[in-house]
């Protein structure tokens, strides 16, 4: 694999940064140690500018090429936050923060972008400006949206933006992406049900909200199987049902909640509407009260066609034509990089993590073997997009 040779020499150092980040995971927008670590490294690497405090704990680095005559500026983004999961593997770099771990590889994403920063600051073999974005709160906090709302693109003059994520189960040395919808919109719903409580041995004198919830879970699945066009995609997952606290009482209330994933606004509208109609109609039929709340969260991540073709070409430079899937199927996970792609043209790509535990699993650990590949991708993207004169 024609990775940049310099990253073989830097591999242990970058992996050390990654493991330091892994040992001290932080959540959401509150990343004081993580952002301080990133900012300190960037200053030591000699980048031109380091800006902290965007979206509370975001860090942005500016690296100018030997020339900036092209007037072009591209953004590269890595996420930094961890997850509220207790780590199970007994690793030397295991999380030191109970109940918190890097179970999605953001430690690796951050380390690879820091590695690219080191090389770009040393060589500056490009004409233009590279803006490196270290983002907080990807895991449900929409840190990407906040950075965009705080003027990230305008402040740094970003014209195109690119992101990358590791992919467990995809072989090391393989990249995957596609133009158009790549990752799903992620919405949440909650239904508060009020029936009539009573003795469990006298159900005819009560109005059981649990029976209603059970029927609604099943009914929701008919939206996907009977309302959504079979060639489209949708997921409705009820992930929480709370009701009662003993065995001989029919409870008065119940709460059910979950997530909806879709790949188009048309299907998103359809699912939200049909769920509301089912809740209202079945509540009337069961003679109880149900309050339905549907909240739209991350939008569909849509890759721009020209920039995706460019990103595919960069990946092929590193791993060869046969190791790049440019027509990968969409995945129903969500990503707040979608907000950045709404603000500027760009592309998101997956890099193979190899055979490992899945994302958000308590035994997951980022594969340090892919660090040279990820760093090389970032550097070649900058040097190719902003060719030196």
What structural category do the secondary elements indicate?
Answer: alpha/beta
| Intertermini distance | 27 Å
Q: Given the C-alpha coordinates, what overall shape results? A: elongated
> What is the succession of H and E elements?
HHEEEHEHHEEEEEHEEEHEEHEHEH
Oligomeric state as shown: single chain
Largest sheet: 8 strands, mixed
Work out the number of β strands. 16
Report strand order across the widest sheet: 1-2-4-3-5-16-6-15
User: C-alpha Rg, in Å?
Assistant: 24 Å
Relative helix content: 25-40%
Number of helices: 10
Sum up the structure in keywords.
4-stranded antiparallel beta sheet, alpha/beta, 389 residues, 8-stranded mixed beta sheet, 10 helices
Describe this structure in words.
By secondary structure, the protein is α/β, with parallel strands linked by helices. The protein has helices at residues 6-23, 32-45, 106-123, 143-149, 152-156, 209-226, 265-286, 305-319, 337-343, 371-385, and strands at 49-54, 58-64, 73-79, 129-135, 160-168, 175-176, 180-183, 185-194, 198-199, 234-243, 249-250, 253-262, 289-296, 301-303, 324-325, 346-354. The two termini are 27 Å apart. An eight-stranded mixed sheet has the order 1-2-4-3-5-16-6-15, with helices on both faces.
How does the SSE layout of this entry go?
Blueprint: H1 6-23, H2 32-45, E1 49-54, E2 58-64, E3 73-79, H3 106-123, E4 129-135, H4 143-149, H5 152-156, E5 160-168, E6 175-176, E7 180-183, E8 185-194, E9 198-199, H6 209-226, E10 234-243, E11 249-250, E12 253-262, H7 265-286, E13 289-296, E14 301-303, H8 305-319, E15 324-325, H9 337-343, E16 346-354, H10 371-385
Parallel strand pairs: 3-4, 3-5, 5-16, 6-15
Antiparallel strand pairs: 1-2, 2-4, 6-16, 7-14, 8-12, 8-13, 9-11, 10-12
């Amino acid at each position: 694999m024609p990775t940049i040779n310099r990253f073989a020499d830097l591999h242990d150092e970058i992996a050390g940064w990654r493991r330091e980040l892994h040992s001290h995971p932080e959540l959401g927008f509150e990343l004081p140690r993580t952002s301080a670590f990133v900012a300190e490294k960037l200053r030591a690497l000699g980048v031109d500018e380091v800006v902290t405090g965007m979206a509370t704990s975001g860090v942005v680095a500016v690296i100018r090429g030997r020339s900036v005559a092209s007037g072009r500026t591209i953004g590269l983004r890595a996420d930094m936050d961890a997850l509220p999961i207790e780590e199970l593997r007994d690793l030397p770099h295991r999380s030191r923060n109970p109940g918190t771990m890097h179970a999605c590889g953001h430690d690796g994403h951050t380390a690879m972008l820091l590695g690219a920063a080191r090389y770009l600051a040393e060589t500056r073999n490009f004409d233009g400006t590279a803006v490196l974005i270290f983002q907080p709160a990807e895991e449900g906090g929409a840190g990407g949206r906040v950075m965009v709302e705080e003027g990230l693109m305008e402040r740094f003059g970003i014209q195109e933006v690119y992101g990358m994520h590791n992919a467990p189960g995809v072989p090391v040395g393989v990249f995957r992406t596609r133009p158009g919808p790549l990752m799903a919109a992620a919405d949440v719903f909650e239904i508060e049900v009020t029936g009539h409580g009573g003795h469990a041995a006298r159900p005819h004198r009560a109005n059981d909200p649990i029976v209603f919830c059970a029927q609604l879970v099943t009914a929701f699945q008919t939206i996907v199987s009977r309302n959504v066009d079979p060639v489209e995609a949708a997921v409705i997952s009820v992930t929480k049902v709370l009701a009662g606290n003993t065995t001989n009482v029919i409870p008065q209330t119940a709460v059910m909640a979950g997530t909806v994933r879709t790949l188009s606004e048309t299907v998103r509208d359809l699912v939200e509407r049909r769920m509301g109609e089912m809740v209202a109609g079945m509540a009337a039929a069961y003679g109880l009260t149900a309050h339905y709340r549907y909240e739209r969260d991350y939008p569909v991540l849509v890759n721009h066609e020209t920039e995706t073709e460019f990103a595919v070409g960069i990946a092929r430079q590193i791993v060869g034509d046969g190791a790049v899937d440019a027509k990968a199927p969409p995945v129903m996970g969500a990503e707040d990089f979608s907000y950045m792609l709404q603000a500027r043209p760009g592309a998101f790509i997956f890099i193979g993590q190899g055979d490992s535990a899945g994302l958000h699993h308590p035994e997951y650990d980022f594969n340090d073997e892919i660090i040279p590949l990820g760093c090389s991708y970032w550097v070649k993207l900058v040097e190719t997009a902003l060719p030196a004169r």
